[in-house]
Amino acid sequence: MSNRKAYVKTVLQKLVHVFNSNERPLSTFRCYLADVTSKGAWLNRSSIIFAGEDKWSVDPRVSIVSSIGSKREYSLQIQNVDITDDGQYTCSVQTQHNPRTVQIYLTVQVPPKICEISPNVVVNEGSNVTLFCQAKGKPEPSIFWRHITPSAKKTETGEYLVITSITRDQSGEYECNAENEVSFRDIKKVKVTVNYPPTILEMKLTGMGLGRPGLIRCETAAVPSPLFEWYKGEKKLFNGRQGITIQSYSTRSVLTVSNMTEDHYGNYTCVAINKLGAANASVPLICKSTLPELSPFDYSCVCLVQLNCKLMITHHKTSNTYH
């Protein structure tokens, strides 16, 4: 006994549902009996869901529905469709002659969702770093990484991002992007902090005339932020003593002299220290008046530069001239 086409015109149907955790869709698979004496059954793959009006499935979300006034409709309805409902459904209609079937394939698409990502990372410069990002979705999402910099280019594709011998320039936020064809991409970030020892970037003097206020600024680069110490020669300086104020910030320290005197002349050293090392730089503060008759307010602190000038005199006997 050969099979014939189903009562409905479409033998094979395809339904696509986009699953969203905030919106649980309702799906209805249409099927019609040949007449009131026909018997129907619904199967999911090889499992029987309904046989006639008898429910075999224990899933409370599935039910048989029919149109008002229609005794021939034998449709299957699934509430709160999720990804586990994906697959083939078959409506089998038993008539007096031959069984007829309708096959419906339900595709449940799921937007990308990052389900696991590395925590924020703190490492020392030169270390190897591995970041991990895992996402779910259907179709399976593609994952790519991006270092949040002005250029903001993709850096790597895949769940793992491996950085060997990391440098301070590679610190910052790394963005994991998960995307598929269903919906907008999902994005999460990991912050990578790279520790490195201090470096003195600049020592700068401002003012420093006798009788005037002046300051020395010490600029550094370091992670974590350094502690600062100041020395005049071999003597450690302290805030609030000898007319000196020391103010330190995350990467900068400023030494201020409220009223410059000759006692403040000398070699000043800024020392920056963190757990990875230390750095220091010195600047000489040498004051000299080239015009003694001027008031102290006309004195200035300068870097002394000695210029040598040699005068050569040649006597030409023939012309009795000097050059």
TrEMBL record:
GO terms for biological process: cell adhesion. The keyword Nucleus does not apply. GO terms for cellular component: plasma membrane; side of membrane. It is found in: Cell membrane. SMART domains: IG, IGc2. It is a lipid-anchor; GPI-anchor. Pfam families: I-set, Ig_3. Signal peptide: none annotated. InterPro entries: Ig-like_dom, Ig-like_dom_sf, Ig-like_fold, Ig_I-set, Ig_sub, Ig_sub2, IgLON_domain. Keywords: Cell adhesion, Cell membrane, Disulfide bond, Glycoprotein, GPI-anchor, Immunoglobulin domain, Lipoprotein, Membrane, Repeat, Signal. Gene3D superfamilies: Immunoglobulins. The keyword NAD does not apply. Residues 28-107, 112-193, 198-286 form the Ig-like domain. It comes from the Eukaryota. Belongs to the immunoglobulin superfamily. IgLON family. This is Neuronal growth regulator 1. It comes from Erpetoichthys calabaricus (Rope fish).
